């Protein structure tokens, strides 16, 4: 059995000793281990990959019993068990295409049983990959009810907004804390409203980028998972900026999804710790 254990608890003496002792107690061997103590929140986080001849339920019981005195938050799963994601889209395809392509290559360890959209534009693309496509109703409450139903029926672990151009309600976001990943453009200065790349061109920006983050009730203010930038010059047209921005967006979103799928993201307040 090859398993990944994640642990979060208040920093205190003896955590690593307790972990290694518990792994030994289940006949396990540590293959990988990463740990960090956040000085601001005094939170200790650890990601450990182990091998053991015991079953997952046996490993889980031994580890949880051995670490219970730390009052931790623990997750344990088989390394081969892929997390399941629903992808929400609108009309733009670049982020979705990258996710589907990397999944088919085996480079993105996720299972995508369903794509939901508020437009029909990407149905053919989704179905060509053998994935179910469902159209969402225009009413926000009905759309979110359909998403909730799909999450339950498909045993979904997280939701990916691949350029889904709808604002989710605060009530919906609260149901899935640190389980919804979004991507959006990043500029300095920031540009709100329509045609941000045209606004950026008009201001002569020299750097454009993208940010992947967890979704909260505050629009585009959730904990940041991944970011990237590209330098641009005065010669770039608005169309050039859009093309560069799309490339950054797809790469950043796919990286964030992979980090989540591999249990490499930990929350420390409104910040993330990434292994």
Structural write-up:
The protein has 275 residues and is an alpha/beta fold. It folds into 2 domains: 2-78, Alpha-Beta Plaits, CATH 3.30.70.260; 83-274, Formyl transferase, N-terminal domain (Rossmann fold, 3-Layer(aba) Sandwich), CATH 3.40.50. It has helices at residues 15-25, 56-67, 94-105, 123-128, 140-153, 170-175, 196-203, 238-261, and strands spanning 2-10, 29-38, 43-51, 73-78, 83-89, 110-117, 132-135, 158-161, 180-187, 207-214, 224-231, 265-268, 271-274. The strands form 3 sheets. The chain has a 7-stranded mixed beta sheet, with helices on both faces. α1 packs antiparallel against α2 (56-67), α3 (94-105) packs across α8 (238-261) and α7 crosses α8. The longest helix is centred in the C-terminal third of the chain and has 24 residues, at 238-261. The two termini are 22 Å apart. The model has no long low-confidence stretch (mean pLDDT 95).
- Spell out the helices and strands N to C: EHEEHEEHEHEHEHEHEEHEE
Uncertain stretches: none
| The number of domains | 2
- Biggest sheet statistics: 7 strands, mixed
State the helical fraction: 25-40%
Supply the CATH architecture of the largest domain.
3-Layer(aba) Sandwich
Question: How many distinct beta strands?
Answer: 13
CATH class of the largest domain: Alpha Beta
Number of alpha- plus pi-helical segments: 8
Strand order in space, largest sheet: 7-6-5-8-9-10-11
Broad shape: globular
As a whole number of angstroms, the C-alpha radius of gyration is 21 Å
Strand content: 25-35%
Mean of residue pLDDT?
95
**Class based on secondary structure composition and strand pairing:** alpha/beta
Ends: how far apart? Answer: 22 Å
| CATH homologous superfamily annotation of the largest domain | Formyl transferase, N-terminal domain
CATH topology of the largest domain: Rossmann fold
